[in-house]
Write a structure and sequence with these properties.
Order of helices and strands: HHEHHEEHHHEEHEEHEEHEEH
Distance between the termini: 78 Å
Shape: globular
Number of helices: 11
Largest sheet: 3 strands, antiparallel
Strand content: 15-25%
Length: about 240
């Protein structure tokens, strides 16, 4: 008697893709791409569903290990599990718009998002691409393996602008501080990693950039134009 053939290997991709494919869960994941924690209520509003419905969807996202949850008192806050999840979602967004990209990003409703936005804690959009380009052209970054290190010239330049980069290992080639991340709207690279996260956090904390309520979009403040003009020439045109 012939023994039954073993079941074929099924990549987990199918089950994870099925979780992401739901429109409500996709809206929640997109909202969390900013990189911040969000409450169940905030995610319910972002997805335009009731709190009870949101709870069920969040459970599925947690089971698929796409989110992590932190309990703070009576409330739970959710965040994307890690950088890999964020990059996978950005890659899916790029692929989904590969034939409609130009028309989609020409829409006036997307202009704020295209100009500057938060991408899992770092700066993305036109401003993020410009920041990466400027740091490279000024030789403030040097290639190291699959990423970049901050040069002594770069550290001095950022210090002069008021950025604090102390506490970061700027000497070890194994401690990359930045790496390339393909930008959703620009289809060019911006930076991800420890250094760009610290730079964006500094800009937000000092009021140089501010978030639009309930959005990933960022805007440059008058104070930001003053401090960022030397590094990001495009802010002079605002």
């Amino acid at each position: 008697m012939t023994s039954p053939s073993p079941a074929p290997f099924e990549p987990r991709l199918a089950s994870v893709a099925a979780v992401i494919a739901d429109a409500t869960r996709a809206r929640m994941l997109s909202y969390l791409l900013a990189g911040d924690y969000a409450s169940a209520g905030e995610l319910a509003r972002a997805a335009s569903v009731s709190p009870a419905t949101a709870s069920g969807h969040l459970g599925k996202l947690m089971a698929a290990e796409l989110l992590v949850c932190e309990q703070r008192g009576r409330y739970r806050y959710y965040k994307l599990a890690d950088d890999e999840v964020a990059h996978a979602l950005e890659a899916l967004a790029l692929m989904a718009e590969r034939r409609t990209h130009t028309a989609a990003w020409a829409n006036p409703t997307r202009q704020r998002l295209r100009f500057a936005r938060c991408c899992y804690g770092h700066l993305a959009g036109q401003l993020g691409v410009e920041l990466f380009s400027q740091l490279l052209s000024k030789e403030w970054l040097s290639p190291a393996g699959d990423g970049y290190l901050l040069t002594a010239q770069g550290k001095a330049g950022l210090d002069a602008m008021g950025f604090v980069v102390d506490g970061m290992d700027t000497s070890s080639a194994s401690a990359r501080l930045a790496y390339r991340c393909l930008d959703w709207s620009e289809r060019r690279d911006h930076m991800a990693g420890k250094l760009p996260k610290a730079l964006l956090a500094h800009c937000l904390q000092h009021g140089w950039l501010r978030r639009h309520e309930g959005e990933r979009a960022l805007e440059v403040t008058p104070l930001g134009r003053k401090h960022l003009a030397g590094l990001l020439p495009s802010v002079n045109a605002l």
